[in-house]
């Protein structure tokens, strides 16, 4: 999978509890049908074996869609499932070690919560940055202090790497994210927590729903 900046346009982060009604795979596939361009498989309570099994199933489901998927904070699962890559936080495995384990052909994303973290990110190791949180969010109880859109703009300006905004974002925030010059926005509850993930995803494109009934 060749990673492009455009893949970050609408980035879905999964949540097992919010996806419970349809299941993670069905929720993701409906969201992709609605316009999601990248997926991060996140489940902090699962084991590596459980993440690997789910990632393998997701990989098969996404085949032919050109939608990359990465695994949050589990390099072993990303390798075992041959995922498109991994996403790590500041307190997780070091980017240099993650890149060594993953290899050069895999995607590696890094969360940054401040301009200083953005400036410290090594473009030789990392493919994109997740910036925020823009707002506080219940899907990540231990999130850092929200940065708002002004903080987001300063973080985007501090790096030439592709960037995706995250943290409490909804479809109403599209213009503000674009004004901050981020390449895209990552969402959890705005899609996973909705009764119709396809229609929820299409709302971000501001397009009439063409989802299957």
Describe the structure concisely:
The protein has 213 residues and is α/β, with parallel strands linked by helices. It has helices at 24-34, 48-62, 75-80, 95-102, 115-120, 148-157, 174-179, 189-192, 197-205; strands spanning 10-13, 38-41, 69-72, 85-88, 107-112, 128-131, 163-166, 184-187. It contains nine helices and eight strands.
CATH superfamily assignment? Aldolase class I
Shape verdict: globular
Q: Report the CATH topology name.
A: TIM Barrel
Cα distance spanning the termini? 31 Å
Enzyme class: transferase
Protein name: Thiamine-phosphate synthase
Binding site for 2-[(2R,5Z)-2-carboxy-4-methylthiazol-5(2H)-ylidene]ethyl phosphate: 137-139, 168, 188-189
GO cellular component, one term: cytoplasm
Write the SSE topology.
Blueprint: E1 10-13, H1 24-34, E2 38-41, H2 48-62, E3 69-72, H3 75-80, E4 85-88, H4 95-102, E5 107-112, H5 115-120, E6 128-131, H6 148-157, E7 163-166, H7 174-179, E8 184-187, H8 189-192, H9 197-205
Parallel strand pairs: 1-2, 1-8, 2-3, 3-4, 4-5, 5-6, 6-7, 7-8
């Amino acid at each position: 999978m060749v990673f492009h900046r455009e893949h970050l346009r609408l980035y879905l982060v999964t949540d097992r509890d919010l996806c419970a009604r349809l299941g993670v795979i069905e929720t993701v596939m409906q969201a992709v049908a609605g316009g999601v361009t990248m997926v991060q498989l996140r489940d902090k309570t699962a084991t590596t074996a459980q993440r690997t099994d789910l990632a393998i199933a997701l990989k098969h489901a996404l085949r032919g869609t050109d939608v990359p998927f990465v695994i949050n904070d589990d390099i072993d699962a990303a390798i075992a499932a041959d995922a498109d890559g991994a996403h790590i936080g500041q307190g997780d495995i070091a980017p240099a070690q993650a890149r060594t384990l993953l290899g050069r052909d895999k995607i590696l994303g890094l969360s940054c919560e401040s301009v200083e973290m953005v400036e410290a990110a090594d473009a030789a190791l990392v493919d994109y940055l997740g910036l925020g949180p823009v707002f506080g969010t219940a899907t990540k109880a231990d999130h850092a202090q929200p940065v708002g859109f002004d903080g987001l703009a300063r973080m985007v300006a501090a790096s030439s790497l592709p960037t995706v905004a995250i943290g409490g974002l909804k479809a109403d925030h599209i213009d503000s994210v674009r004004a901050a010059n981020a390449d895209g926005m990552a969402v959890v509850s705005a899609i996973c927590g909705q009764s119709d993930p396809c229609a929820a995803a299409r709302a971000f494109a501001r397009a009439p729903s063409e989802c299957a009934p």
